[in-house]
């Protein structure tokens, strides 16, 4: 079984993914790290040198490779579900979990982050909060197609246990 964690940047997909994989005895894949390793450069550099379309193509290829894996938790990029029918593909190839977080907490996390995320660079002086709000509004309909929605405001062992229970309930009913 494959578990795909989706959600806005800053929701803790990688942090939760590592903990969840460890708790389940699964392997873990961070899609962004996989892309960077294969390309030999950061995502910001891929965006700067080749553009978003080239990055999304690499992202789609990396996502499709996960179908070869079993017993894996995959932390996707925030935009992964929005391109190449990836949300539908992930729903067909595994269990999708949307990590939902209030916009105020996203803003706090992202404004303090030292990680450069090209998609989160506000255009034309738009305040970061407004940019996050606009992107989130665009992405929520896709994110809500996930099979499970989890409040990720406080990633904790009880949350991980709840996800594992939901996961087992889902797989037992298949």
Write the layout of secondary structure elements.
Elements: E1 2-6, H1 13-24, E2 27-30, H2 31-39, H3 43-50, H4 52-65, E3 72-75, H5 86-93, E4 95-100, H6 103-112, H7 128-143, E5 148-151, H8 157-172
Parallel strand pairs: 1-3, 1-4, 2-3, 4-5
Description:
The mean pLDDT is 88. 53% of the residues lie in helices and 13% in strands. The chain has a single domain (2-172), classed as 3-Layer(aba) Sandwich (Rossmann fold), CATH 3.40.50. The protein has a 5-stranded parallel β-sheet. It has helices at residues 13-24, 31-39, 43-50, 52-65, 86-93, 103-112, 128-143, 157-172, and strands at 2-6, 27-30, 72-75, 95-100, 148-151. The protein has 174 residues and is α/β, with parallel strands linked by helices.
Task: Considering the chains and any ligands shown, give keywords for the structure.
Rossmann fold; 5 strands; five-stranded parallel beta sheet; alpha/beta; globular; 174 residues
Shape: globular
- By CATH, the topology is Rossmann fold
Average pLDDT, to the nearest integer?
A: 88
Q: What's the CATH class label?
A: Alpha Beta
Domain module count: 1
Brief sketch in words of this structure:
The protein has helices spanning 13-24, 31-39, 43-50, 52-65, 86-93, 103-112, 128-143, 157-172; strands spanning 2-6, 27-30, 72-75, 95-100, 148-151. With 174 residues, it is α/β, with parallel strands linked by helices.
């Amino acid at each position: 079984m494959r578990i795909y964690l989706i959600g806005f940047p800053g929701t803790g997909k990688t942090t939760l993914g590592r903990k969840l994989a460890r708790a389940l005895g699964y392997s873990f894949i961070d899609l962004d790290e996989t892309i960077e390793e294969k390309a030999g450069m950061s995502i910001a550099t891929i965006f700067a040198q080749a553009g978003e379309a080239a990055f999304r193509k690499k992202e789609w290829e990396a996502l499709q490779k996960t179908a070869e894996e079993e017993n894996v938790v995959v932390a996707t990029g925030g935009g992964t579900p929005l391109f190449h029918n990836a949300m539908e593909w992930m729903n067909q190839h595994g269990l999708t979990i949307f990590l939902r977080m209030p916009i105020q907490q996203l803003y706090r996390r992202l404004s303090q982050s030292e990680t450069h995320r090209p998609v989160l660079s506000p255009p034309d002086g738009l305040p970061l909060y407004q940019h996050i709000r606009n992107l989130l509004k665009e992405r929520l309909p896709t994110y809500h197609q996930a099979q499970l929605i989890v409040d990720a405001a406080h990633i904790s062992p009880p949350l991980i246990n709840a996800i594992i229970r939901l996961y087992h309930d889902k797989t037992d009913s298949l």
